[in-house]
Amino acid sequence: MARSIWKGPFVEESLIKKVEKEKNNPNRKPIKTWSRKSTILPDFVGISFLIYNGKKFIPITISEDMVGHKFGEFAPTRQFFGHTPADKKAKEATPDAAKK
User: Fold this and answer.
1) Does 86 have pLDDT greater than 90?
2) pTM of the full predicted structure?
3) Which CATH number do you get for residue 34?
4) Are 48 and 59 in contact (CB under 8 A)?
């Protein structure tokens, strides 16, 4: 279910303060954040963030296309390692049978 329009987008107060502080700073460092549920605002464009995915921080620079999305969408929490070895063997055997 989407958030009500009259409420506006959710952004952590501390994150807004960090962005305002960083905009005035000429030596920009990435901003660390654990708030994956915060919405990306137009003020964040061009700023680098380190978004925590539960294990490590993922570096992301905000572009105009990301505005309106959540931070968590750009830092996946799960990693796909492939299917089981039995499935890989079955897939390899199929093309050989077609060649003969």
Assistant:
1) no
2) 0.77
3) 3.30.860.10
4) yes
